[in-house]
Amino acid sequence: MSLTYSQEFKDPEISKALVARIREKSTRPLRLMEVCGTHTMAIFRYGIRSVLPDTITLLSGPGCPVCVTTQKDIDAYIMLARRSDVILTTFGDLMKVPGSGASLAAEKANGADVRMVYSIFDALAIAKENPNKEVVFCAVGFETTTPTIAGAVLMAEAQELDNFSIYSANKRTPPALAALMETDGVEGDGFILPGHVSVITGLDAFAPTFEKYRIPSVVTGFEPVDILKAVLKLVEQNESNAPRLVNAYPRAVADTGNPKARAIMNQVFERADASWRGIGNIPDSGMVLKKSFHKFNAAEKFDMSVPDTPEPAGCDCGRILMGLKRPDQCRLYKKACTPMHPVGPCMVSSEGACAAFYKYSR
Predict the structure, then answer these.
(1) Residue of 37, 83, 2 lying closest to 347 (CA atoms)
(2) Over the stretch 287-334, which tens digit does the pLDDT of each residue have?
(3) pLDDT tens, position by position, 124-152
(4) Which in 91, 109, 286, 346 has the greatest CB count within 10 A?
């Protein structure tokens, strides 16, 4: 019986064959970093680390948008939630992320109007239903979600929703890879590049970073066969000393990505420097609203001034995001920091490395 298209990428026999080829070809120690939270969770869920040879170490990079959101931005969301005139809307991952003194979940328990939504368009609907309230959306994400947020802002403008705004912590992925390569102590032999992001950006967005640093790089999907194929390609490139930028996810990713989605994104947002948790300021890595859409900028609408705050004492989330530590090497892991009582965002987000390690590691 022939396999269907979707079954092929989950087929255990194909996976076994790929593992055998990886074991056969891998002769030198390699440190490979996945730059996508969904890849991190898939690698743990399918037990991929356990079947690879000892020569290969998989590292989790800054691929979780909630995890790279700074303490300052989390505090800004909490500040907005405390306003009596605001309904704060957010995806669920942000609810339990600790700020410097509280979390959105704690603020909700104390009476703040904080609502979890599944889409920014749910926030638009809430704004229509509550014309006497200001509705703010916590805009966190990479290129995957930024076009949708841009589309919602355009819709709010068309519908003259003056009580809707966003607080943007949106970020771009390629500059983070370049920043990692410039960070002391960060060593990598290959990148497993994010499939979701690449659907929008295309393979071409990663070309400048690849050309500068010549690190083997492969875009891939999220099924076991996808990930193992990417590992095999990275092993082969390292063994032959022939680094390449490869699209191993052609069923979803084109070299040029999705020009229409990027056009909408670039109509509403412009690039700016941005601060990443644990990494610091990365030039040209943020996406902020253009001045022509300033009325939808919550930071300006509410004249917000948020102080810089240090990350929690003892939390190694930043070093984990750079591949400098494993979650179990943080002294707070499974002690002061657990999913029920998190200290850092890596333990909270559904794409966080600490959350994945806690859930799946034995």
Answers:
(1) 37
(2) 999 999 999 999 999 999 998 888 888 999 999 999 999 999 999 999
(3) 999 999 999 999 999 999 999 999 999 99
(4) 346
Q: How many CA atoms lie within 13 A of 228 on its CB side?
A: 27
Q: What is the pLDDT of residue 104?
A: 97
Mean pLDDT of the chain: 94
DSSP 167-183: EEEEE-SHHHHHHHHTS
271: CB partners within 8 A, 6+ apart:
172, 284, 285, 286, 287, 288
Question: How far apart are alpha carbons 317 and 3 in whole angstroms?
Answer: 41
Strands in 164-171's sheet, in edge-to-edge order, are 114-116, 86-90, 134-141, 164-171, 280-289, 269-276
Give phi and psi for 354, each to the nearest 5: -65, -40
Give whole-number Cα distances, 119 to 45, 138, 313, in Å: 26, 11, 33
**Could you count the other beta carbons within 10 Å of the beta carbon of residue 181?**
15
Helices (H) and strands (E) in the chain, counts: 16, 11
Task: Report which DSSP code applies to 205.
Answer: G
Q: Who contacts 135 (Cβ-Cβ below 8 Å, separation ≥6)? A: 86, 87, 89, 123, 126, 127, 163, 164, 165
Show the CA angle centred on residue 242, arms to residues 237 and 248, nearest 5°: 45
Model pLDDT, residue 105: 96
Q: Express each pLDDT in 155-165 by its tens digit.
A: 999 999 999 99
Contact indicator for 345, 312 with CB cutoff of 8 Å = no
Q: Is the pLDDT of residue 4 over 60?
A: no
